[in-house]
DNA sequence: CTGTTAGCGCTTTCAT
DNA sequence: ATGAAAGCGCTAACAG
């Protein structure tokens, strides 16, 4: 009963316009139910008084908030900002507000955030969720949920298939005459890593190329740089890295070792988060994160107004983006 | 009167526990007003029933939402994600939810977002706001407002002084024996650019160095790369770039031109958004965006519980971060 | 087409 | 220490 009461209320407008409160409400939400005259008069009075509908009261009454929550493991991971941005822009078209949550890669934190948000949103989008399948199902039972890059049966999800682009990259390398390559792996627990590793292996085998895998615990610039000696020792002429950051590290390592790219060695990254901002510009695999963000929001809207929709599984194919770090196999 | 009614309400808990609704409310918000026994019993019953306080109803009644909004010009600009992240983590400590808005660099969009958010937040944080002073004052009159990197008298603000770090960078260069340098400028309309440009000029003059300025309309990797011929023609032995992206482009351009960094030429970036992910790792100026995000939120909290606070002007100094792209002046 | 009347779920005086 | 009751501002039957 305290708190800042800063607004003109519907009652004041009603009194000033000489109508019932419900009419004022209708003037804003269902103007077709009122005579045009009345609507105009009410709107004029409202304008004059500086009336602004109270979002909270409306939400309490209707159960509709016009909010969604988007939770990501790490806002600062360059993969997410474009996704966040596009989800946001799409939300804007629907006049929705978006809460952003940072789970800090921790399931517990993510769980907490979902709880904090769920009372004031229509639905949630979980990107690369760290939650267990059980928790996801539990939350999905309470609120519409859309997943990005997480494949849980029964929950609507948008999946980015980096495998398709990686396969293209391998084919691209094969065409350039490379016969032996190495895949520099990312975190073994990662869905994306498994996907990429498998794609490299499968398409390389199909094209008669040799593949070796070099593991790196964390996908970092340093890890990529450190992998260079092993890569050179492998005898391969090209490398596909788990992500762009590692590829960038590899580029640096090669440069240090005096190996020219792409003349003597070819490098392919993954996720296209660097733009063309390396020298030479990095050949990589597109990420589709922009589409994923947009699609996730749209899907959530669909789920919202037809709660029958469940278990949608929307796969986004990726492609190789050929730039300057891949060239004909040496010799 | 429709909408999803998915919750156990306070009334149900009250009945099940054999107490008044107000007691249930107090058990959650003012347990000290009740006997410990009662509190325990109520909490147990609530737990058992799966009661969760309705955020919206509470907000309507108290006028307190526990939400803040953070608006940035572009989520995908690498300067902002760390800031967003830290503001978020700080908000988390206070159990606040944060709305994120992307103004897309447009004042009109920003204005719209502020309007959309302001009904359901305690206050707002505007980072690098594109709004006019008038609009900012107008909004600040309705809701507590904190600005980041925008200096408007009468409004609490956090300013990142990149000038201090740039001056350090120039001193660092002078110590290395450089006598002539060029500043590759960013957008002329930018507050930061003016700040940095002036710092370079001032400290260079003080140290007896020559400075030339090369302008670039947009701060991009390409712009940096394109500036290389002009930089080389200038006869300078070091360059300070408006931001890291341009510095990275300059690095690429130098590499293409066969100029070795830092042996033959020194390069300093600004904002430290690349981490050490270039080769050689870039010497740059710290950005303090993490502190800015955190400080902005804290300041907002301060403003909230002591509305007397206004016109706080909190300046964050920056520093040069010496890495691998600066070395002794050649010859 | 418009007014009357219940709520939505919670907090907060005011009593007791 | 606890209960009763009056809202917070808006929406949505239900009447007319």
Describe the overall structure.
With 331 residues, chain A is an alpha/beta fold. Chain A is 45% helix and 16% strand. The first copy, chain A, has twelve helices and twelve strands. Chain A has helices at residues 10-17, 21-29, 36-49, 55-62, 80-93, 107-118, 133-142, 162-175, 191-206, 221-233, 244-256, 289-305, and strands at 67-72, 97-102, 123-127, 145-148, 156-161, 180-184, 210-214, 238-241, 266-268, 284-285, 313-317, 320-321. In chain A, the strands form three sheets. The first copy, chain A, has a six-stranded parallel sheet, with helices on both faces. Chain A has a four-stranded parallel sheet with strand order 7-6-8-9. A two-stranded antiparallel ribbon of chain A has the order 10-12. In chain A, strand 1 (67-72), helix 5 and strand 2 form a beta-alpha-beta unit. In chain A, helix 1 (10-17) packs across helix 3 (36-49), helix 5 (80-93) runs parallel beside helix 12 (289-305) and helix 8 packs parallel to helix 9 (191-206). The model of chain A is unreliable at 1-5 (pLDDT under 50). Chains A and B meet through helix 4, helix 5, strand 2, helix 10 and helix 11 of A and helix 4, helix 5, strand 2, helix 6 and helix 10 of B.
